Amino acid sequence: MTDKQPIFILPENIQRIMGRDAQRNNIMAARMVADTIKTTLGPKGMDKMLVNNIGDIIITNDGVTILEEMEIEHPAAKMLVEVAKTQEDAVGDGTTTAVILAGKLLENAEKLLDKKIHPTVIARGYRIAAELSQELLQDISTKIGKDSLLLRSIASTAMTGKGAETSKDILSDIVVKAVTQVMEEKDGKYIVDLNNVKLEKRKGGGIEDSELIKGIVLDKEKVHSDMPSVVKNARIALLDTALEIKAPETDTKISISSPEQLQAFLDQEERTLKSMVQQIKASKANVVICQKGIDDVAQYYLTKEGIYGLRRVSKSDMEKLSKATGAKIVSNIHELTEKELGNAETVEEVKEGSEEGVTYITGCVNPKALTILIRGGTEHVIDEIERAIKDALGDVAAALQDGKIVSGGGAVETELAKRLREKGQVLKGREQLAVQEFASALDSIPSILAENAGLDPIDMLTELKAIHETEKGKNFGIDVYNGKIEDMMIKGVIEPLRIKTQAIKSASEVAMMLLRIDDVIASGKGGMMPPSQPMGMGEE
Ligand code: ADP
Ligand code: MG
After folding, report:
1. Residues lying with their CB under 5 A of ligand 2, a single-atom ion
2. What is the mean pLDDT of residues 55-76?
3. What string of H, E and C letters represents the secondary structure of 404-457?
4. Which among 53, 218, 453, 479 is least buried, having the fewest CB atoms inside 10 angstroms?
5. Does the C-beta of 479 come closer than 6 Å to ligand 1?
6. 417 has pLDDT over 70
7. Residue 93 beta carbon below 6 angstroms from any ligand 1 atom
């Protein structure tokens, strides 16, 4: 055996890319993701129409929604999707910004790699810049209290360009009212639990008919039309068990050989259901809300007792109801007593025309239970409004909790880039170059905002940078509607500081992580080749 045998340490179907190729490949994939969504940034950004394999259509401008629906395969590209998701969880808004930043950081890193700067040096420079950014941003931001005018501007900025245009004022008002009503003050700080705000969608009417309801709205009608439509002083039982006879196990057989036996069996069933309803009645409940089904016979007896019944209410709604009304969710109907019931002033079915009815539970014992009822002409419109409202809720909550805001329209990014460049100059060596590239990645935000608004990005950026050199320049950004550089604080284009701190944090983390990878080993379905088409669609 003198011949050299090739040595295989990996199975055959493994894809492997190493060294500079691995970096290039990852960077290219990440850039493609960023490029795909960059046209949606800002009020003048475009929307995307996404069609899934069963033909459902989503029309949206929301970064994280687009990326989630795209079913991205490439591992590096997937990490950018994670950036968007982290942003979504931490703030709710700013997902496009975060992904664009990550893409730009990588694009700029590539320039340095081409200059033979080692990736670990770039990563170190980026780390320095990211840490500096967090400090500088605190300094650039403005403190706020619970001034509702400001909060409304924040909500409105979040919703600009998201199909909510015509009703932005009404919706901003709803969002701010909702957040301030659920807000609690503790040791001079505000705490907002957005779980108290339920979003419910209802087709029909215009967006401007959306409303904030004190209480819970369930997209369900009473199970039997003869049940009362309104129950005052509601005593509510929440059941996570069915008001049904359990179907016999698959392998048990009941042999019935005579009509009498059948009748006896049915009577037995009916008696069981009747006793369940008796149990509910004995607890003094006049409303029963069931997470599972309610059998026809049980419906009949409930109706006879004048009890309002709802069935198949989702688990998350059951939990909201429990919090709102103080009811305990009961699993065993025999344990239901008056103690487990919750209270609300009114439970009412509201029906409009031929539409399915909905149930309003208002005047709950917990005043923090709220529902935003979102209206709109079509499902696609309502869904996009829902995403806009979620962004706005997250932004207003973040602004209140942190008490800090920054100005939008590219103002904060420009100011931060400027200060980073200044700070970077004192750094020695090649890290300085990385800090400068980090700063120019930030410039891409105003630049893309301008581009998406049909303005000249170079002219706008030059003018923007010039004014930021002046003393009053800190809050100047691009008014995408008139193409002028103006003070965004005065214009009311305001965002919570947290959008930016979070976006920079996760974008720089993913960029640094991808830069350190010099070997990609993928088994099976690799998905490692960057797609030849911009959206990564239609690839095998
Ligand atoms: P993201 O997913 O990052 O939130 P958006 O499409 O919501 O992306 O765009 C957010 C950007 O649009 C922010 O930079 C914000 O400052 C900017 N923006 C929002 N409203 C305005 C406005 N009226 N004028 C200029 N820029 C605005
Ligand atoms: Mg946004």
Report:
1. 93
2. 85
3. EEEECCCHHHHHHHHHHHHHHCCCCCCHHHHHHHHHHHHHHHHHHHHHHCCCCH
4. 53
5. yes
6. yes
7. yes
The pLDDT value given to residue 536: 43
* Tens digit of each residue's pLDDT (9 = 90 or more) over 75-85: 888 899 999 99
Residue 279 burial by CB count (10 A; 0-12/13-18/19+): exposed, middle or buried?
A: middle
Mean pLDDT of the chain, nearest integer: 89
Are 225 and 252 contained in the same domain? Answer: yes
The pLDDT of residue 538 is above 50 = no
Distances (CA, A) of 122 to 22, 83, 365, 440: 16, 20, 57, 14
Judge if the beta carbon of residue 96 lies within 6 A of ligand 1: yes
Structural domain of 25: 14-143+420-442+498-523
> CA 291, CA 331: separation in Å to the nearest integer?
10
For 428-447, the pLDDT digits (tens) are 788 899 999 999 999 999 99
* Domain contains 465: no
Centroid of ligand 2 to alpha carbon of 159 (angstroms): 7
Q: Kindly state whether residues 393 and 503 are assigned to the same domain.
A: no
What is residue 14's DSSP assignment?
Answer: E
Residues carrying an active site annotation: 62, 95-96, 391
From CA 362, how far away is CA 380, in angstroms rounded?
Answer: 28
Residue ID of nearest Cα to ligand 1 atom 16 = 408
Q: Compute, in angstroms, the gap from residue 88 CA to the centroid of ligand 2.
A: 10
316 and 259 within one domain: yes
Mean pLDDT of all residues in 519-528: 68
Whether residue 499 has pLDDT greater than 50 = yes
Pocket test for ligand 1, best of 61, 393, 489, 493 (most atoms within 8 A of CB): 493
Which of 65, 387, 480, 491 for mutating ligand 1's site (highest number of atoms within 8 Å of CB)? 480
